[in-house]
Amino acid sequence: MNSERSTQTTERQEPTPLLKLALELGPLGVFFIANSRGEQLAEMFPTLGALGQPIFIATAAFMVAISISLTVSYVMTRHLPVMPLVSGVVVLVFGALTLYLQDELFIKLKPTIVNTLFGSILLGGLFFGKSLLGYVFDSAFKLDAEGWRKLTMRWGLFFFVLALINEIVWRNFSTDFWVDFKVFGFMPITMVFTMMQLPLIQKHSLESEEKS
To answer: Contact 115/167 with Cβ under 8 angstroms?
Structure first.
């Protein structure tokens, strides 16, 4: 009886698709709003004004929002996906450096570092014969070995492309433009790329082979 009760109390349901989307995109939305409304927020809350320019207020809000997102995700599922966890840790570390040193460079480097890290891990795994993407998405869909290898290769290269795009944007455009592009540029690019992988997934799906 006790073991059954403990099992019931530790089990958590997966968040609904809408809630999952909110947990993933919510912090980015907070980042965008806090940056675009930084001056108004500083007037309403003088404590925030002490942080400095809107980008610093947005960075602090981003750190709080992503911490809440990770906490809610863990409470509901009792685990944290690797990619959001790594991204969250980098946000907290580089966000703290941004606020402490009053240098927006660190938060701007976050996408470059995270995407380069993910790309290196995926392509490095392939070098040693491991399609690491399969460990991340195996619960979502089943592919044969060749499918996982190709999908891992594509995502590994795509992460490097995202890192390069981030470098181009923050080095050549204003901070406000970079924030806007981070929210409204990277997400559509990633969604389009994801949709483009559907033919590969369908071709190498083990579930489709079983049905046939």
So the answer is: no
Query: Given a cut of 60, is residue 208 above it in pLDDT?
Result: no
Half-sphere exposure of 205 (CA within 13 A, CB side): 15
Residues 6+ apart with CB under 8 A from 58: 30, 31, 32, 34, 35, 38, 179
Instruction: Please count the CA atoms within 13 angstroms of the CA of 17 that sit on its side-chain side.
Output: 0
pTM for the full predicted model: 0.80
For residues 146-164, b (16+ Cβ closer than 10 Å) or e, as one string? ebbbbbbebbbebbbebbe
For the chain, state the CA radius of gyration: 20
Tell me which DSSP letter residue 119 carries. H
Buried b vs exposed e over 121-136: b needs ≥16 C-beta within 10 Å? bbbebbeeebbbbbee
pLDDT surpasses 60 at 97: yes
